[in-house]
Structure formats: C-alpha cells, structure tokens
Amino acid sequence: MDKAVLYRDLAEELNALLTGEADRTANAANAAAAIYHSLPALNWAGFYFLRGDELVLGPFQGKPACVRIPMGKGVCGTAAIERRSILVPDVEAFPGHIACDSASRSELVIPLLDGERLLGVLDMDSPDLARFDTEDQAGCEALAAIVVRHLR
Ligand code: SME
Prior knowledge:
Elements: H1 3-18, H2 24-38, E1 44-51, E2 54-62, E3 68-70, H3 74-82, E4 86-88, E5 106-114, E6 117-126, H4 134-149
Helix pairs in contact: 1-2, 1-4
Bound molecules: methionine sulfoxide (SME).
The site of methionine sulfoxide (SME) has 15 residues, from helix 3 and strand 6.
C-alpha cells in the first residue's frame, strides 16, 4: 500500500466527514473511527483533550483506556508538554510509557495545536513493533491539522 495515496485519500475523507458539522464530540468521534478503520495495524486510535493541567480521554476506537494523563507523563503527556509529535518504535524502550492495552508495541502521538493553543493529542497505537515511520508521522500531522480545524 502506497502511504502517500493512503494519507491523501484519508485526508480527503476526513475533510468531507467533518465539514459542515460544528459539534466537537461528533467530529472527534468520527475522526477516531475514520483513522482506526483506514490505517492498517492499529489497536487503538483516539483523542485526549487538555482539561486544566491534565489530558482527559476523548472519543476513540479500541479497548477502554486510562482516562487521565498528567502533562509530561507517558507518550501522550510528553507530546503535549513538548508540543511535538512523538514516534515510539518500541513502547518498552520509552521511559514512562503508560500501557493501556498490553498488546500495544509501538505508538505515534501528535499534538493538536490551534496556533499557540494546545487542544490535546491524537494517539495511535499498534500491536506491531515499529509500525510507524516518518511518513506516517507527516501523514498523521496533516490529519491532526484537519481535525483541529473542525474542533474550534
Ligand atoms: N500509551 C499512552 C497512553 C494512552 S493509551 O496508549 C491509549 C501513553 O504512554 O501516553
């Protein structure tokens, strides 16, 4: 599967799915479902939103997950506090990784930034080691930018 084509198609699908709807929960829920069912080899895809000084679980697809993640903790809290994407080829090698689903072996977390304002993170987990590469990171950053436009 050509990743460039996959991400281009998914970006178009996401844009069409979210355009015209202003409800943030509905848009985040549909985005999580579209991402989970379009990208291969994921066991979890969804959102954590910034609430005060912690991240709180938002819409997702996958097994039930930990609800609250303090800023700076785990892969999600690190991506949030550093405001940059974090690609983890092997979660066991990431100090402080928070294991919500023991099947997860690799992870990609993208911060949701509306200009300077941090809204939360987009988190994707895979049961495969090194599932994500820099092309996935760029593709998912583009998806996150679309989601942010529809969460305002
Ligand atoms: N592994 C994440 C926690 C969230 S779950 O993967 C859904 C982390 O370390 O922040």
